[in-house]
Design brief:
The chain is of the alpha/beta class and 135 residues long. It is built from 4 helices and 5 strands; from the N terminus they run βαβαβαβαβ. It is 29% helix and 21% strand. The protein is globular and about 45 Å long.
């Protein structure tokens, strides 16, 4: 049995830990497999919607806080084959192009690519999810 887990990021990555927590939870969710029955599995995905799409911008600085960037977190998520979706309509609203976003983990040898999808596709994935966490 596959349990589908949805992690939705809709807040800005600034002045709070919500986005970082969402990514950390999504990445860590894949480790629960060791506690499942044989044949059971989890299939997490991360969707950045609304203000959350700003979290995927490249070259954001966190040096004044001494923490990892969201760019590093999203790259690590993709390296671990986590599905990452950006909401197309929200990217258009913010005038963010694909080349401004973290879309892969090629620099670390990963081959998973993030996807820019319409909200209707994200909604369909949400409806199919067994568990939902909104950040």
């Amino acid at each position: 049995m596959i349990k589908k887990l949805a992690f939705i990021v809709r807040s800005l990555p600034y002045k709070n830990e919500a986005t970082r927590l969402a990514l950390t939870h999504a990445i860590a969710s894949q480790t629960v497999e060791i506690y499942l029955e044989d044949g059971d599995n989890v299939e997490p995905f991360l969707a950045l919607v609304g203000d959350g799409v700003v979290s995927g911008l490249k070259n954001q600085s966190t040096k004044c806080y001494g923490i990892t960037t969201m760019e590093q977190h999203i790259t690590n998520a993709l390296l671990l084959d986590l599905k990452v979706y950006y909401c197309k309509e929200d990217l258009e609203r913010f005038n963010i192009s694909e080349d401004q976003l973290v879309m892969d983990a090629e620099s670390l040898g990963g081959d998973m690519k993030a996807s820019i999808v319409p909200y209707s596709e994200i909604q369909a994935a949400l409806e199919a999810a067994d568990h939902l966490q909104i950040f």
